[in-house]
Amino acid sequence: MRGVPLHLLLGLGALLTLAGYAHRLGFLPSAVVGVGLGLYGVLALWGLRFGLRHALLLLGLLAPWFPPALFLAPLLFAGLFARNFSEKDQGAFYGWALVWPALALLLVWHVFPTFYAFYLSLFERVNFLRPAAFAGLENYRILLQDPLFWRALGNTFWYVVFTVPTGLLLATFVAILLNTRVAFLGLYRTLFFLPYITALTAAAAVWRWIYHPEFGFLNWLLRTPGLDWLNTPTGVFALLLRPLGIEVQGFWAGPSLAFVAVMAMSVWHFLGYQVVILLAGLQAIPKEYYEAAELDGATFWQRHRLITWPLLSPTTFFLFTLGLIGAFQVFTQVYVLTPTGGVLQDTLTLAFYLYNKGFRDSDFSYASAIAMVTFLIILALTLVQRRVLERRVNYEV
């Protein structure tokens, strides 16, 4: 491009526009914005070597009074003089111009908050009402010695172990059944997808009634009147082994009956989404494979074990990855079904503990430390999962 690389100046202007608003909200020091503005000014002045028309880019220096000027000045310059650019330069500029709005949303709602959460975690008890002293890694040291954190991590671990494989296997079975030619197939698919499009809060409220100890549908169905599903802290392994005379305690007692009830509701709610994705994967498998296997005498289970499962591996890998990430962030259904985190904090999860620290105790620095540790755990498990499982994924149909 003759003159300053306009697409780079556009990107810098977009970042500085966001930084300007962050500074106005008190999230960034003025020095950061000042350095960025100075860099923009240098690039704009350098453009004057290629013609006085590049002086239009200097309008971006009005950003201290009007932050979007940094982004609008390159756009205005391109609108007036783009006809003089080469086709390659026009493609580069307009491509970035179309990408930046979506990229800006990603930065505002995901990337910048991550760095800001780490920044907050380095201070002592941030509540935005008074200045907070710098504490370094003290919050992380306290976190590693916090029994409630380990309790929440253990509960979250059980949630992942129970819900992710169970939901995936059940969804695969249902998707295989719905992939056959049966009457009212569209109705069945709709019925399975309806729970997912129902608001999670409303669905959890209905399940709270289902689990009610006196008037709940589940106790009526199982003929167990008075069983308080959501307030029974005893682990399910302990309940199952107790008739055999085996007593287990602590972590090895397993998730509480209350938490298993939460897990059952979660599997039910997200089943429809997984079924729809798996149905799309099943319909991409050529039917000739099944016909050839049937001619060779393969049974129903052999066809699905040797054909469906290997060729469905990209879809199951995708759902397993999303399920793992989502399971570590579970909050809504736990909060609605057990608002206090259970009788003995037996349904407390990492996201629920983060919420309590941030919005109940007004300790956003400690909550940010929990968020950063949760992020690192999810990142590590996702990388391990990708290294271990992706090699077994068959992308060729």
UniProtKB/TrEMBL annotation:
Location in or out of the cell: Cell membrane
UniProt-listed Pfam families: BPD_transp_1
Keywords assigned by UniProt, alphabetized: Cell membrane, Membrane, Transmembrane, Transmembrane helix, Transport
CDD domains associated with the record: TM_PBP2
GO biological process, one term: transmembrane transport
TM annotation in the entry: 32-48, 55-81, 93-116, 156-178, 190-210, 257-285, 306-331, 364-384
Predominant location category: membrane
Membrane topology: Multi-pass membrane protein
Keyword Cell membrane: yes
InterPro entries per the UniProt record, alphabetical: ABC_transporter_permease, MetI-like, MetI-like_sf
GO CC annotation: plasma membrane
All residue ranges annotated as the ABC transmembrane type-1 domain in the record: 153-385
Stated family: Belongs to the binding-protein-dependent transport system permease family.
The protein's name: Carbohydrate ABC transporter membrane protein 1, CUT1 family (TC 3.A.1.1.-)
Organism field: Thermus arciformis
Lineage: Bacteria, Thermotogati, Deinococcota, Deinococci, Thermales
